[in-house]
Structure prediction request, 487 residues.
Amino acid sequence: MNKETVLNVEKSLDPEDWSALKELGHRMLDDMFEYLQTVRDRPIWAKPSNFAVASMNQPLPKLPQDAAEVYGEFFTQVLPFNNNNTHPRFWAWVQGGGTPFGMLADMLASGMNPNVSLGDHMPMHVESQVIEWSKKMMGFPDSASGLLVSGASIANITALIVARNHFNKDIKKKGLRAVPAQMIVYGSAETHNCVAKGVEVIGIGSDNFRKVPVDEQYRVRVDELRRMIREDREAGNLPFCIIGNAGTVNTGSTDPLEELAAVAKEENLWYHIDGAFGAIPKILPEFSKQLKGIELADSLSFDYHKWMYVNYEVACVLIRDKNVHREAFSVAVNYLAMHERGLSGGPDSFTNYGMELSRGFKALKVWMSLKENGILKYAEMVRQNLRQAQYLAELVRQNTTLELLADVPLNIVCYRFNPGGISDSELNRINKEILMRLHEEGIAAPSYTLLNGKYAIRAAITNHRSRLEDFDVLVKETVRLGNELIA
Ligand SMILES: Cc1ncc(COP(=O)(O)O)c(C=O)c1O
Prediction:
């Protein structure tokens, strides 16, 4: 083939008509601004239409389709049936709502499209800056290290891998057979299931995750923890890690973190804290006592996409000892070796601190958001959510047909409709039905949990768009639906 012919057939995936794509891009941006600006006016949830669902059961496209048409399909078939965690009355699971500026940052990151893995380029420095700020926010020492990952689940697993490999230096090479007995992890019975999954994934096995009983406020019982460690040692097992919870998923309880740090020190165990959302109040001076244990941990996980309201998905893992962190993940290979100069130079590769080699530029939206708002604004928003949780709890307490099912130490409120004289099993059925109707009628999206066998409607408030009036709606509509169901 001669060069002339090749020049005529070579193509790229860039548009042939840039001006048309620019115009479409501007429309997309305007549409998304409009979408976010008017989110309060829409129902909290709409079931994906049959047409929309069927549109995702099509053959693999063979031929090109016009970009505007593709966008049209997104606009009519995807966008209207969102998860809607952008909505002011979304309090399901623990999900943040993102921000318009975060959306723009994601666009910039995607346009730059760097692989933030290794090399001498600014995205590497942006992530390093975010890690430095994360350390400051959480009171970790300057010598600590960290990494941005997709969520607290992966952050927890990353920390567990570091803890495991640090426990016995042969594990990295020889696997768990290097260890003469069974390694054991401890965490309260309220610990998030991603930790148990992590214990499975790192080869310890979930049977060896000891679920320590909790007190009436769902905090780990330190006396029970000590007893379990003692019994394991007597049985010849090898305790190696304690998990502390800053904000449990069910009720937002925080374990006595300082006491756990003391046990870990006495017993010479790794101390990890899952602070997916509950570590964030560390930025509030009034939480300095309750969250004091955070800076004592060997490792900490927290999400930026939950209570820091950054757009999905981004979380952070911090490790107190940078060398231990690096030892757990670094593998020397020729094709990733750093050079003295050129693009292959630059800062230490992030692949030395985690599992992923290819990594997107999620640091950009964190960096831009932290600068856009400043930490004082975040503190204000977190305080607002804390006030809203107390407001909702008080509305529940004051209503004779509602029952608060747990204390509200943070931002999670668990309650049920209970006008009296109805069995627990029937109340479970009624409250589940109330929840489904709250969603189906597009009113509000709390989620649910079981507390001591009682079905709880559960509002986890990590929403910067909620106002007090939204909680009035939740309570009023819960009572209306409950009364309709028992009528
Ligand atoms: C306490 C806690 N830990 C871990 C997780 C998992 O976080 P992610 O969904 O970001 O992986 C959650 C999620 O809600 C959580 O509440």
